[in-house]
Please model this.
Amino acid sequence: MNFSTCKKCNRLITKTFRSICDECIQKEEKNYTLVRDYLIDNPGASVYDVCEGTGVDERDIELLIKSGRLERCGVKCAYKCGMCDTLIETGVVCEKCKQAVSKKVGSIKKEVEKNKPPEPVKPPPEVPKSKDSDGRFHRLAKK
Ligand SMILES: [Zn+2]
Ligand SMILES: [Zn+2]
Model:
């Protein structure tokens, strides 16, 4: 029999498809119901409101949001952007941070492009040589 530890409380559990123990699953279910009901009654509430209103740990609420379960049943909860204190309802970071990040990524890309060795010069495509009336090749005039 395989054993592993519960990801939440580190209790030794029999390895199943779940990574947390039965007790934590039950707790999670209870939290989920509490949070969902609170959000149905208080649409647009933030993680902090829910935490205050239900007594569920902020981190557990965030986990519930990130698992997408709340969204699936149509309730949304505002939570903190991963980079600043702005409250957001979807994604990981707020619009502002998203833009800042993509700007940063853009400038990094540019930087990388600048430092890239120049592309190998491709030989010019073959141009069929034309001949003079007297049979000589044309020579490009050099100045
Ligand atoms: Zn557990
Ligand atoms: Zn942000």
User: Anything to note?
Assistant: The mean pLDDT is 86. Residues 113 and 119 are 11 Å apart (CA to CA). Residues 6, 8-9, 11, 20-21, 23-24 surround zinc ion (ligand 1) (CB under 6 Å).
